[in-house]
Amino acid sequence: MRDTNTTIVTTPVSVRLRRSPFWPRSHAAGGHNYTSYNHTLIAADFKSPEEDYRHLKSAVQLWDVGCERQIELRGPDAKRLAQAATPRDLDKMADDQCFYIPTVDAKGGMTNDPVLIKVDEDHYWVSVADSDLILFFKGVAAAMRLDVCVDEADVWPLGIQGPKAAELARRVWGDDVMNIRFFRHKRMDVNGVPMLLARSGYSTQGGFELYFEGRVGASALWDQLMAMGSDLDVQAGSPCQSERVESGMLSYLSDITPDMTPFEAGLGKFCEMTRDVGCLGWRALREGQEPMRQIRPIEISGGPLPPMREFWRVISELGETVGRISSACRAWSYDCNAAIGLIGRSHWQPGTKFTVETSDGPRSAIVRERFWNR
Fold this sequence. Notes:
Blueprint: E1 8-9, H1 23-28, E2 32-37, E3 40-45, H2 49-56, E4 60-64, E5 70-74, H3 78-85, E6 98-100, E7 103-104, E8 110-112, E9 115-120, E10 123-127, H4 133-143, E11 149-152, E12 155-161, H5 165-173, E13 185-190, E14 193-198, E15 207-213, H6 218-228, E16 234-237, H7 241-246, H8 282-286, E17 293-300, E18 312-315, E19 321-331, E20 336-344, E21 353-358, E22 361-367
Parallel strand pairs: 4-16
Antiparallel strand pairs: 1-2, 2-3, 4-12, 5-10, 5-11, 6-9, 7-8, 9-10, 12-15, 13-14, 14-15, 17-20, 17-22, 18-19, 18-21, 19-20, 21-22
């Protein structure tokens, strides 16, 4: 999902940038500092970053995350096409499951880290991070002469996130939502239309994502959720940079870049390497299972950090570049600076100290054993 290091615009000015059917309500609720993600507008802030962060951790928020575009794969070869893009074994995917998958090119470089949703037999949605991954699927489908339709579904996710999200969902859809397991989905009635509700979201506070189909009834649903959650302090919000960094939730094109493999991103557990499942990059990945650099949680000393506009170099005690910081924030709940770093093998052990060259000067830093909110 979104990373607040991206360039923001104060006013959504271009018809070239899409708006979800929830955009009028989220905009009216105080959304500002808009950013473009998958050619779609999303609000970066509602109150202040710290207020939004603390509210997310204490109540419930509605997130207009229609920028999570859905690549639709439909047809007899839909699963084969999806498998060509990922080393995760899709034979193990249940009918109601959402699979977090690293997608790679033929050389094993990461092209995205989407969530794959099995909608029906021979029918999948690929819920992508910010990239034009649909072109990859179209190209592979054509080159392999697969019997599959690749398109962008008219689906606009709505996040219901926070510790009180389950109670709000229960009030709207009944006790049955409590039986939805993590990263599983179930069809719920929305304005008379059955739509997928998944227990998922780009936070670790708990919640759901509703895959809203079409545009009709979006404002009415938003209003219903707001009304039924008024005593739960429901508010509009958006994915929170500080909460996702302290939780170790990676952002494609920030923490994960196309020159990285899933093993460098710490996603090796999602890669089936004992047999070739049909992934185009499988052979290349077989040769890269022992990475020389990998994602690590980093704590940076001092007061609040300046905004990041580029990677920050990580410098060893001998003055050598041993990594980079890709995302950093003030972790207010822990009164420290949290960061995500891609660190060389020689310096990635917990307790290793080094210097980070921030945009306002050098700071001492240390590798942590785990991310804060885990």
